[in-house]
Design a protein that fits this description.
The structure holds two protein chains of two kinds.
Chain A: E1 4-8, E2 14-19, H1 28-37, E3 47-50, E4 53-60, E5 63-69, H2 75-93, H3 98-103, H4 105-115, E6 116-117, E7 120-121, H5 126-129, H6 145-156, E8 172-185, E9 191-205, E10 211-216, H7 219-225, E11 251-254, H8 260-266, E12 269-271, E13 276-285, E14 293-302, E15 306-315, E16 322-331, E17 336-343, E18 347-351, E19 356-365, E20 369-378, E21 392-398, E22 407-413, E23 425-439
Parallel strand pairs in A: 8-23
Antiparallel strand pairs in A: 1-2, 1-5, 3-4, 4-5, 6-7, 8-9, 9-13, 10-12, 10-22, 11-13, 14-15, 15-20, 16-19, 16-21, 17-20, 18-19, 21-23
Chain B: H1 6-18, H2 20-24, H3 26-41, H4 50-56, H5 62-75, H6 80-93, H7 99-111, H8 118-129, H9 134-150, H10 158-167, H11 173-186, H12 197-206, H13 212-222, H14 230-240, H15 249-262, H16 267-285, H17 290-304, H18 326-339, H19 345-355, H20 361-375, H21 379-390, H22 395-411, H23 416-425, H24 433-445, H25 453-462, H26 470-486, H27 488-504, H28 509-523, H29 526-533, H30 540-546, H31 554-557, H32 575-578, H33 585-592, E1 613-614, H34 621-630, E2 635-638, H35 648-657, E3 661-665, E4 673-681, E5 684-692, E6 702-708, H36 712-732
Antiparallel strand pairs in B: 1-4, 2-6, 3-4, 4-5, 5-6
Classes of the chains: A alpha+beta, B mainly alpha.
């Protein structure tokens, strides 16, 4: 259980403080500030023990969220709770920043009141919370009988994540496959480690209690059905790459609405979806990952005061697709005095504050190549320490799934209301982003 | 922080809140209330506004109500008499037709921390428990726990407890979990909520309806339940199987813990569950948020204690990325060291090598120490790397490498020749005292293999006046004496100078005494000195003790999925290095944040707590004898092997490593051989006698244990620790 929750800005000023249990004194707020936020060293652990009280913290941009407890709690749970808290706040007012928190100060206190009681998590689904949080300050008399019964049915219903009697004029479904691809590559171009962690996020606006069935090119399913069976798709999903037919999923987990027994026996994913946005599944793959970019670094030290860097990036996907928001960070030594950059595409700039050359390209098509060369002037130092050469890191966004995952179908059945699978408008989108994408040089 | 002029601010707010014009304008009024809360958050004392805030609670605006309640909950304990004024409004709200208002009022009423409130809240809580809206029931159930925590000494109301047990069957899942939480707190002194067969089965069936927090907590509560038969056990396990794959890492790990706990008698099931969850744990280690990644790594370390090979194929997942925080990198390195095998050793070493040049000296030293650990099995490859690092001529790297060499030579003597060659070539003298000591030890111990050793020593002896650290001086004395014993001609002169300086001019008494000791020893003759000073050059048996063996699952499972694994004391990698004077701030910080050492304070309520042996204050021979005679033998066991054939020192050191103190033992090979040991743990004192009557034949080693006060759990733990130590020592000798 959680004894208290504090939110600080980067200076250590308290923005929100809520204490749930007596064993957390008022000085706990200050203890964390003094010992962790204002500590001179780097953070040594996300869990800190100060005077027999454990402080769990996470940082979002420059905001610190800290949960405090005196009990021997389950650490993973507390962290997940803090993430959930961040998610809920983001769902209400967008990015977690000092300004947003100050502006939504009352709302956050309201949320904290509902989410935790006596330190125990109560209700953390954004959809369900919206019933209890009244930002406009509705008068109690205004509540109609109908709304009242809604509250009751929602929290007593058999299916905790969906209430009855939802109606939409247009039945729509949005399916996002969001992946983050992680890479660690040696200077010689050898893949040291690579994995994709992906999420399937769904926004459903469907009437009634629909039953959904979701299919993807999971290797186990495809192998079972035989190779010919893949062509019967109605073509709603937009597979964007040719190449391999199926992918091997190392590990996957589902939203609680998915019937796990069915997944274990038949490997089929069927569920009654919650209303609105939620995360249907999370997965991880490590085999046959399509690395959208190759980075080829070339660093040459010319004497003691000059360094020549040449970096080539190659895009490795279909020429018809466009990658966006490409950003390459090329680290420079600490004693850099001047940098001259020449690049064929995009803009490159030396940022002294980050000790790096930042090269930005807005768009880049597949199977292209681009290069940057830079001459770095160094100040002579008597420091014998060799420059450690941090890796070149990269950020990008591509419109396909680097794991190769494809949505094969998503069928909707609602036996009670008369709309069929064909009436539902479905949208599928693939976004691949860079996670930690590093190439050593 | 608005500490300055705070009185002005409070006065101004007071004026505004009592202004009838403001009160009439709802929006302005609420704005002022918000400001009060804002100041409260920032730590300003706004308790003097209590009266005005109570007035503001009489409103139909729910948001305003919530804010005022928040204020009142914070200050109610300071102003109990005024808070009573608000109770009436709250009690009225408890009868509101809107369940949300009812719940809100009840929750806040229970949050008032002041004496005497109980009589007002008891009736609404009882009514709330029977409310038809589940929202109110949830609040009421938590209210029971709050009421109890207000008056912890008062007798437990049996009717409420019964009502709570009945509510475990509530259709609303959160009410069910809240009931468990409330019962746990109310019945804390009686050992918490009772999980019998019907309740356990009911909870298991409701598992899938609960939210992830509830699942995680119910799984923890179920740890208390012991299935009657194997059939029931396997039914439960198959019901829970799906949760091993839960989307929420904490649920998956909690399930794993329950699996391991329930299947204590079925190691195959345990192994299977670990295999099954390894995927989930790996995902946790690769999760986007670094805190969860850290928690995942810590749990992987725990699992590796009994299944070291489980993650070996995935070793690449533990390579560090540059941007990761150092706490993750340290853990990853520790794991990598454990995962090394014949196939991946080259790649892992290459990886670790690249960390050695990291910007953070701490991390670089940890990486070097990690290579040193691997060197105990793959010495050749590692020595190449370590030698290569010396060529970088970076002070912190050189220092770490030399310390690693010293440990390596001690643990695996076959690498001595190579190390000596390297040290010979390493002309640059290290600057920090830790490294100096390591180098001096190497020179003294293996002086005959390092041809330039006396000359290096001479440099140190000449620079003695500028040396500040007394431990370096002591090491220098020992090294010089040892060197004199093997190469007298080259050393005699400088040893004389050294002893003279230390005896005549040294102000540090320890150093002076040491020098005098050696001086007198040398007067006894060279042979006598050799006998005293020269010991064994290495002790490979120690590596067995410090190295990690496969431990049974039960060793760590009781701590699994709690705070324990996250703050487990760091394994051998960084401990010796952290105290180096390059980071003087570390010690200071550790005092402030005793995270790595003291985990236990919050744990001990668990019966199944892990046995933590410690030495405590030394026991005198007399008091040992008295206690020994007073107590009965609680446990006697004949071990299947004889007494260890190692030197007494090794035996003593080995036992001390596991926190068992040797009080006395029969010297040499005389028979019957006896040893008396003692230790403390889990609030008991344990005394033990080891006895061997005949040489090697039938008469095996007999252990008799006495204990005060008796604690079966600790006793069993002690015997198993002791026998494993003795066994290891026997194997080595």
């Amino acid at each position: 259980m959680i004894g208290g929750l504090f939110i600080y800005n980067h200076k250590g000023e308290v923005l929100i403080s809520r204490v749930y249990r007596d064993d957390i004194g008022r000085n706990a707020v200050d203890a964390f500030r003094v010992n962790v936020i204002h500590a001179r060293q780097q953070v040594r652990s996300p869990v800190n023990n100060i005077a027999r009280t454990s402080f769990f913290h996470v940082k979002r941009s420059n905001i610190w969220l800290a949960a405090v407890t005196k009990q021997n709690v389950n650490a993973a749970m507390v962290f997940e709770f803090l993430y959930k808290m961040c998610d809920v706040m983001t769902a209400y007012f967008g990015k977690i920043s000092e300004e947003n928190i100050k502006n939504n100060f009352v709302l956050i206190y309201e949320l904290l009141d509902e989410i935790l009681d006596f330190g125990y998590p109560q209700n953390s689904e954004t959809g369900a919370l919206k019933t209890f949080i009244t930002q406009q300050g509705i008068k109690s008399q205004v509540y109609t009988k109908e709304e009242q019964s809604q509250i009751t049915s929602q929290v007593t219903g058999q299916i905790g994540w969906r209430r009855e009697g939802i109606k939409y004029r247009r039945n729509e479904l949005f399916l996002d496959v969001l992946e983050s691809v992680n890479l660690l590559m040696s200077p010689q171009g050898q893949v040291l480690s690579a994995h994709v962690s992906g999420r399937v996020v769904m926004k459903s606006y469907l009437s009634g209690m629909p039953e959904c069935k979701f299919g993807m090119n999971d290797k186990i399913v495809i192998d079972k059905q035989g190779k010919g069976a893949t062509t019967d798709d109605s073509g709603k999903s937009v597979p964007c790459r040719s190449g391999k037919q199926s992918i091997a999923i190392d590990d996957c987990t589902f939203h609680q609405c998915v019937r796990l027994s069915k997944f274990d026996s038949e490997r089929s994913i069927s569920f009654i979806p919650p209303d609105g946005e939620y995360e249907l599944m999370r997965y991880r793959t490590t085999k046959d990952i399509i690395l959208p970019f190759r980075v080829i670094p070339l660093v040459r030290e010319v004497g003691r005061t000059k360094l020549e860097v040449k970096v080539v990036i190659k895009s490795n996907f279909k020429p018809s697709l466009l990658a966006q928001k490409i950003e390459v960070h090329i680290p420079t030594p600490l004693n850099t005095s001047g940098v001259q950059v020449i690049c064929m595409k995009g803009k490159a700039k030396y940022k002294a504050s980050e000790n790096a050359i930042v090269w930005k390209i807005k768009r880049m098509a597949g199977m292209k190549e681009s290069q940057i060369s830079a001459e770095i002037e160094l100040l002579p130092t008597n420091d014998k320490k060799k420059w450690a050469r941090p890796p070149i890191s990269m950020n990008f966004e591509v419109p396909f799934a680097p794991s190769g995952l494809k949505v094969r179908y998503l069928k909707v059945f609602e036996p009670k209301l008369n709309y069929s699978d064909h009436d539902v408008i479905k949208w599928v989108r693939y976004i691949g982003r860079s996670g930690i994408y590093e190439t050593r040089c | 922080m608005p500490y300055f002029g705070s009185e002005e601010t409070v006065k101004e707010l007071k004026r505004a809140l009592s202004n009838p014009n403001v009160q009439a304008d709802r929006l302005r009024y609420k704005n002022y209330i918000t400001r009060v809360i804002r100041y409260m958050t920032q730590g300003l004392d706004v308790s003097s506004l209590f009266m005005d805030m109570v007035k503001a609670s009489a409103t139909v605006d729910i948001v305003q109500k919530k804010l005022v309640y928040l204020y009142m909950c914070t200050y109610a304990s300071d102003k109990p008499d005024l808070a009573l004024l608000a109770i009436n409004t709250l009690r009225k709200d408890c009868a509101d037709p809107n369940p949300m208002v009812r719940g809100l009022a009840l929750r806040n009423m229970c949050n008032f921390r002041m004496p005497g409130i109980t009589e007002y809240i008891e009736q609404p809580i009882v009514a709330g428990l029977r409310d038809k809206a589940s929202y109110v029931r949830r609040v009421a159930v938590m209210g029971c726990a709050k009421m109890h925590s207000l008056q912890p000494n008062i007798e437990i109301d049996a009717s409420i407890v019964n009502e709570l047990y009945a509510l475990l069957r509530d259709p609303d899942p959160v009410v069910v979990v809240n009931c468990l939480r409330a019962l746990e707190e109310i019945l804390k002194d009686e050992g918490g909520v009772v999980i019998n067969k019907p309740i356990a089965h009911h909870l298991l069936n409701r598992m899938k309806d609960l939210d992830s927090w509830g699942q995680s907590e119910v799984l923890t509560f179920l740890l208390r339940y012991r299935p009657r038969s194997d059939d029931e056990l396997f039914d439960i396990l198959s019901l829970l199987d799906a949760f091993l794959q839960s989307a929420h890492a904490h649920v998956a790990v909690a399930t794993l813990r329950l699996f391991l706990h329930l299947a204590t008698a079925h190691p195959a099931v345990q192994a299977d569950a670990l295999q099954h969850t390894s995927g989930a744990l790996l995902t946790m280690c690769g999760s986007i948020s670094r805190e969860l990644r850290f928690a995942g790594l810590c749990h992987v370390q725990q699992v590796m204690r009994s299944q070291p090979g489980l993650f070996a194929p995935h070793y690449k997942r533990f390579f560090c990325a540059y941007s990761e925080p150092s706490y993750i990198k340290f853990r990853k390195m520790e794991i990598l060291v454990e995962l090394v095998n014949d196939e991946n050793v080259t790649l892992v070493l290459e990886e670790l090598r690249s960390y050695c040049t990291d910007v953070s000296p701490e991390l670089a030293q940890a990486a070097i120490a990690a290579i040193g650990r691997i060197a105990r099995t793959y010495s050749e490859k590692c020595l190449d790397i370590l030698t290569g690092l010396l060529a970088l001529k970076q002070e912190h790297i050189t220092s770490a490498v030399i310390q690693t060499f010293r440990d390596l030579v001690w643990f695996c003597p076959q690498s001595t020749a190579a190390v000596c060659q390297t040290v010979e070539a390493c002309v640059d003298c290290p600057q920090d005292s830790e490294a100096k000591q390591a180098l001096l030890w190497l020179l003294g111990e293996h002086g005959e293999q390092i041809s330039s050793a006396p000359y290096v020593l001479e440099v140190y002896i000449d620079g003695l006046k500028t040396e500040l650290s007394s431990s370096v001086k002591m090491e220098l004395l020992t090294a010089a004496v040892k060197m004199f014993l093997c190469r007298p001609a080259e050393t005699q002169d400088m040893l004389g100078r050294l002893l003279h300086h230390c005896i005549e001019e040294e102000s540090d008494m320890c150093v002076r005494d040491r020098a005098l000791l050696y001086h007198r020893l040398l007067q006894q003759g060279v042979e006598q000195t050799r006998k005293v000073v020269m010991g064994p050059k290495s002790d490979p048996s120690m590596s067995v003790l410090t190295g990690h063996q496969q431990e049974p699952v039960s060793q760590w499972v009781s701590n699994f999925n709690t705070l324990g694994p996250l703050s487990a004391p760091d394994l051998c990698i960084q401990t010796p290095l952290i105290s180096s004077p390059e980071q003087p701030s570390n010690n200071a910080e550790e005092e402030l944040l005793p995270v790595s050492k003291d985990v236990s304070p919050s744990i001990p309520k668990d019966d199944q707590e892990e046995l933590n042996l410690y030495l405590g204050p030394p026991l005198s021979h007399e008091s040992f004898e008295r206690t020994w005679l007073d107590l009965e033998v609680l446990h006697r066991e004949t071990l299947s092997y004889t007494r260890p054939r190692t030197t007494p020192d090794t035996l003593q050191a080995a036992l001390q490593l596991v926190k068992i103190q040797t009080l006395a033992f029969t010297p040499g090979d005389t028979l019957p051989w006896k040893a008396y040991l003692y230790t403390r743990g889990n609030r008991t004192l344990i005394l033990a006698e080891l006895l061997q009557e005949d040489p090697d034949s039938e008469g095996r080693l007999v252990v008799s244990v006495k204990q005060q006060p008796p604690n079966q759990h600790a006793l069993r733990g002690f015997v198993s620790i002791l026998s494993s130590v003795l066994q290891t020592l026997n194997v080595d000798s």
